[in-house]
Specification:
binds iron/sulfur cluster, 4 helices, single chain, alpha+beta, 3-stranded mixed beta sheet, about 100 residues
């Protein structure tokens, strides 16, 4: 009979119950807070974190992505529903998505 404990210890694909494709491992281990698209969206009374990858103007990452963007500019670009998605799709401790780009600090 095989030793199950040893089987899992020696199986390098079995890591925390997750399987990573070799090219996807970096993204899976990073969080939104390390992403260049994770910016401040500044309103009249509050400032919240959002994802600039949802805004077409910044999605290509051709231009430099600013640290903060005014909420009026976001509303003009993607509308109210887009703004809600932009604010809810990311989080400081959430795993990075497929659009992840590391910060160039
Ligand atoms: S949701 Fe994706 S693109 Fe947006 S901040 Fe997070 S990792 Fe970056």
């Amino acid at each position: 009979m095989t030793n199950l404990r040893d089987y899992y210890r020696r199986n390098f694909l079995y890591s925390s119950h997750r399987l990573y494709l070799p090219q996807g491992k970096e993204r899976a281990l990073r969080t939104c807070s390390e992403c260049v698209f994770f910016i401040n969206i500044v309103g009249r009374t509050e400032k919240r974190k959002g994802c600039a990858a949802m805004i077409p103007k910044f999605a290509g990452a051709v231009k430099r992505i600013p640290e903060q963007v005014d909420v009026v500019e976001v509303l003009r670009e993607i509308g109210q529903v887009g703004l809600q998605e932009c604010l809810s799709c990311c989080g400081k401790d959430l795993s990075a998505c497929g659009f992840f780009q590391p910060r160039r600090d």
